[in-house]
From TrEMBL:
InterPro entries: FAD-bd, FAD-dep_Monooxygenase_BioMet, FAD/NAD-bd_sf. It comes from Nocardia mexicana. This is 2-polyprenyl-6-methoxyphenol hydroxylase-like FAD-dependent oxidoreductase. It comes from the Bacteria. GO terms for molecular function: FAD binding; monooxygenase activity. Gene3D superfamilies: D-Amino Acid Oxidase, subunit A, domain 2, FAD/NAD(P)-binding domain. SUPFAM superfamilies: FAD/NAD(P)-binding domain. Residues 350-360 have a biased composition (Acidic residues).
Length: 360
């Protein structure tokens, strides 16, 4: 028997994959229903992992938007650059969760919503909730997010660290006139002296909807401020992300009602304890990374695939996650090199080399 703590992307798809392979599993999720949230981008590796886990391709494609044009960077004072698509698709998070939940339900996965875990014994594999013992003497896979209870018990020194930026997501609810390429996710912003732009603004439009976000270098917001807000409450901060794209940003804000605001945080891997025992970490609980290069959700899905393979072939799930740690470390080093190559480098610009605002 496997108990999964957390019914987000990783926990739901892992539970569904195990149930489809007739492996007994129970998922506990503290929220009363499948989560929603903003939106995300998954690359071709994530799509392939979902296919290998057994998630049908058709419903995934039906709720997502392809990005064959890849990524376009428009950063001052550097100019333009681009990065190719690697099978990237944009997903509204709620729609992706609906597909994964239906996949899990089709195998009769036992997902118990509204169960908050209160403590966990990492030696015995015992999980307690507000109603008493939820699991005992079992393998517990903790996919309980960046503020993981299980990680706090296993590795109390390995805490999530603020990555220096706040991210704000928005989705338009009314038509907005844009004349840019709908196959490309566009980034606008200003480069600073550090490894990250001082601020950046990104967007991608579909036929009827535009998805946009901004990342701003600043002090973290309080826990109470994380979540949904009226767009007007953050309008000044959003406009400041890129004054050169004021027309584009203004048009998108005018068509948006609500934004989702969060701190960018990372869970470090360099000081991680080798996976072992009855409690294993998965996804953001083990290696959360601030939103960049479509990595976070893909890494969680690939964790689910590695664990599914181990549990259904009789190999060690702990060793599978140890191997994942090695892969992730190498991948992050590679992504840092790709980012440095794709990001425009500062150059001299003439006064008449203006950035277009993207509106008609």
């Amino acid at each position: 028997m496997v108990t999964i703590l957390g019914g987000g992307i990783a926990g739901t798809v892992l539970g569904g994959a195990l149930a489809h392979r007739e492996h007994p599993v129970t998922v506990y999720e503290r929220q009363p229903a499948p989560g929603a949230g903003a939106f995300m981008v998954l690359d071709g590796y994530a799509q392939q992992a979902l296919t290998e886990l057994g998630v049908p391709t058709e419903p995934l494609e039906a709720v997502s938007h392809p990005m064959p044009g890849g990524f376009g960077f428009h950063y001052l004072p550097a100019g333009r650059n681009a990065a190719p698509s690697r099978g990237h698709r944009l997903y509204p998070r709620g729609d992706l969760m609906r597909v994964l939940t239906e996949f899990a339900a089709s195998a009769g996965t036992d997902i118990r919503y509204g169960h908050t875990a209160t403590d966990i014994d990492t030696d015995t594999g015992t999980l307690w909730g507000t109603d008493g013992v939820l699991a005992a003497d079992e393998l517990i896979i903790a996919a309980d997010g960046i503020d993981s209870l299980a990680r706090a018990r296993l590795e109390p020194a390995r805490t999530a660290a603020y990555a220096g930026q706040v991210v704000i997501y928005g989705t338009t609810t009314r038509p907005v006139p844009l004349n840019d390429d709908p196959t490309v996710m566009h980034f606008h912003g200003t480069l600073g002296d550090g490894p990250l732009p001082v601020a950046s603004f990104g967007h991608l439009r579909t036929d009827n909807t535009a998805y946009w976000f901004t990342r701003v270098t600043r002090d973290p917001i309080s826990v109470d401020d994380i979540g949904a807000h009226p767009v007007d409450a953050w309008a000044d901060t959003i406009h400041a992300a890129d004054p050169s794209a004021a027309g584009l940003i203004g048009a998108l804000l005018e068509a948006t009602d609500t934004v989702h605001v969060a701190n960018c945080r990372n869970v470090p891997l360099h000081n991680a304890r080798r996976p072992a025992g009855r409690v294993l970490l998965c996804g953001d609980a083990d290696h959360a990374v601030s939103p960049a290069a479509a990595r976070g959700a893909r890494e969680a899905i690939e964790d689910a695939l590695a664990l599914t393979t181990a549990l259904t072939t009789g190999t060690s799930p702990a060793e599978a996650m140890a191997a994942r740690r090695i892969e992730l470390t190498a991948e992050r080093e590679k992504q840092a090199r790709i980012y440095a190559t794709a990001m425009p480098q500062p150059t001299e610009r003439s006064d008449d080399d203006e950035e277009p605002d993207g509106t008609e």
